[in-house]
Amino acid sequence: MKSEQKIPVVAKEILFPFLLITSLFALWGFANDITNPMVAAFKRILELNNTQASWVQAAFYGGYFTMALPAAYVVKKFSYKVGILVGLALYAVGALMFYPAAAMENYLFFLLALYVLTFGLAFLETTANPYILAMGAEETATLRLNLAQAFNPLGALSGLFVAQFFILGALQSDDMAEDGSYIYETLSESAKAAVKTSDLMVIRNPYVGLGLFVIFMFVVIAMVKMPEGKKENQVGLRESIKRIFRKERFVGGMLTQMFYVGAQIMCWTYIYQYAENIGINNRDAVNYAYAALVIFLISRFLCTYLLKFINSGRLLMMLSLLAILFCAGTIFIQGEIGLYSLVMVSFCMSLMFPTIYGIALTGLGDDAKSASAFLVMAIVGGAFMPMLQGLILDIGGSGYSDVRILGVPEVNFSFVLPMLCFFVVAFYGHRAYKKYDLE
């Protein structure tokens, strides 16, 4: 036990590169959480139904699925640094595409911009996660990844801040009359067209600014000498894939990650719809999203500390079971108490992504590069699961309480989907705790 304590989480000589790569975790956290409120924003501005609006998340997380394997190929062929630079370049291009998308006022162009932007995020996550794992001893790999991932919600909080004050707070289409109805819905077609043009410009500007900042990060990382992991033997990607798919721990982790990401995106995307159903508009609902992220951040540091004493699989299982209880509260307790229960799900989710990632990649060596690509592809759960929730919300109409299921509005009932996802995560945690030697 004493010898394990002497192993540094991050060696001093690579501390600066570690911090630089860790900053990328905040960068894609920013993109994730500035985009989550856009589902509700595009629905209002472009007068979409819930399923159509959910295509925002389908485009955003579909990019991960499309580009993860090419990213793994680039990393294996060249280096971690090249993978990161390609990711930053694609990220910048996608963000800057919001400028012509707003000029054309075309929803499909906005979706294409998000799709390209997440090409970059796929490269960054495929590269940065295994890079962090490789920056030290395998015994401290999961702890190191949890530490790096702890900076992800800092970026997410920044994204929410921008969404609230520079987007949602400035949207004219979100203005409400004294009776609680949306003024935008009562305007003439010409007045609506003017508001639509103005609001799409409001959405455009933060993304363009983000693109310029990403270009700055590209220049900084390009100029800094980055450490590189051990060069692998000349083994093709196909052989590597065959090996990793013979590992039960990896395959289970990949499937579990898909369900976890789906649960996370559903809880963070549809918190706005849940709040609106009890009379809270989007710009005020951001405060609940803030609370969820702050709780997520505090819990991430707390759980990272607990990993020193509790087996990672066991802690994953315990938090998953607690998340199931909070989902039940979200479904069956109506009003603000149900909303608080939804917020508290974030306490349970904080540990899940990096811990599933770390468990799945343990012992894979250089095969972790290709394995990481499949774990990033599993993020596609964030693409199609919110669409399933959108379909539930559209039962009976585009409102959120058109019908009652099991005695509750459909927006409440729709959270049965993340609840089922957490059952999958709990099973994987139990499997890891009972079968895999992760001490």
Write up what this structure looks like.
The chain is mainly alpha-helical. The chain has one domain (9-435): Growth Hormone, Chain: A, CATH 1.20.1250.20. Helix content is 75%, strand content 1%. The chain is built from 22 helices and 2 strands. The protein has helices at residues 2-6, 15-35, 38-46, 50-53, 55-77, 80-96, 98-104, 107-134, 141-149, 152-167, 189-223, 237-244, 248-269, 271-277, 282-306, 312-332, 336-349, 352-361, 368-377, 381-393, 410-413, 416-435; strands at 404-405, 408-409. It has a two-stranded antiparallel ribbon with strand order 1-2. The longest helix has 35 residues, at 189-223. The protein is globular and about 65 Å long. It starts with a helix and ends with a helix. The mean pLDDT is 85.
